[in-house]
């Protein structure tokens, strides 16, 4: 992601890419390969877009793909609508830009994710450039916040401590000291070019559930890997999967923090014993 995203940010910061609303435009169908905006709610877009991109195959589609990893982090529920209103503006009789309030909401949630990977919020997405709420624009819907407010959220953090071949007592103590403990297999996929991609392979098994939800935890850990790419790069070797026992807590602000990771190999009998003893263990 880092290599491609850097190119995207440089493109968006380039003053020459600014869009002139007085120039003529044309409407085209959003192509199937433009997956970032395929299900955004409309089927036709204007070219040039608000970044000044006019070449669909050479500029618009590849540049849109640069943003897919950021959107997959779930940094804001309206991040897709915001970005697609810029890179694939809806084809109507008038230009519809994102409202300043929408830009601010997405920026405040997604800029920390970019910062975690060493990037700043793009100059071309300076929220002061977008119209105020009283103008015709794509607005920020606060109703989205109600669905995610009470769920733990992944955040940028320092890499958690990783321990190999821990003693049984050490593992049990970690279970007692933290809100949750799960087993998960991190997988690193080889890519023909660019940065590797990471995901959770198979099921996430609960040892101590705590505040985590069964239907949400796998996706939550997937987002954690996408946000903390530098850490993920250390935790998983290329082309390999690694099974971990993860312990952590949910912070007062609702963010999830992983604290300890124990590598679980077949030879690690102490971890196996600890997970069995936990059912009857008293902290």
From TrEMBL:
Keywords: Developmental protein, Differentiation, Disulfide bond, Secreted, Signal, Wnt signaling pathway. One of its GO terms (molecular function) is Wnt-protein binding. Residues 22-140 form the FZ domain. It is found in: Secreted. It holds the Pfam family Fz. The keyword Signal applies. Residues 1-18 form the signal peptide. PROSITE patterns: FZ, NTR. This is Sizzled. It comes from Cyclopterus lumpus (Lumpsucker).
């Amino acid at each position: 992601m880092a290599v491609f995203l850097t190119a995207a940010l440089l493109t968006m910061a380039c003053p020459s890419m600014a869009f002139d609303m007085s120039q003529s435009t044309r409407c085209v169908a959003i192509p199937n390969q433009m997956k970032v905006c395929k299900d955004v709610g409309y089927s036709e877009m204007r070219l040039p877009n608000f970044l000044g991109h006019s070449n669909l195959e050479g500029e618009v589609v590849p540049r849109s793909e640069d943003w897919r990893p950021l959107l997959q982090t779930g940094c804001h529920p309206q991040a897709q609508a915001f970005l697609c209103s810029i890179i694939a503006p809806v084809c109507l009789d008038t230009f519809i830009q994102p409202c300043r309030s929408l830009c601010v909401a997405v920026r405040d949630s997604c800029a920390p994710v970019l910062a975690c990977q060493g990037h700043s919020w793009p100059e071309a997405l300076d929220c002061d450039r977008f119209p105020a709420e009283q103008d015709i624009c794509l607005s920020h819907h606060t109703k989205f916040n109600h669905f995610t407010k009470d769920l733990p959220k992944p955040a940028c953090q320092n890499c958690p401590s990783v321990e190999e071949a821990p003693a049984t007592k050490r593992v049990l103590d970690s279970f007692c000291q933290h809100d949750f403990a799960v087993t998960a297999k991190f997988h690193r996929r080889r890519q023909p070019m660019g940065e590797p991609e990471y995901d959770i392979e198979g099921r996430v098994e609960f040892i101590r559930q705590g505040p985590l939800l069964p239907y949400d935890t796998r996706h939550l850990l997937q987002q954690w890997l996408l946000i903390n790419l530098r850490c993920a790069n250390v935790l998983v070797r290329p082309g390999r999967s690694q099974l971990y026992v993860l312990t952590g807590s949910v912070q007062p602000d609702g963010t999830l923090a992983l604290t300890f990771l124990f590598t679980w190999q077949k030879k690690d009998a102490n971890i196996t014993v600890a997970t069995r003893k936990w059912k009857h263990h008293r902290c």
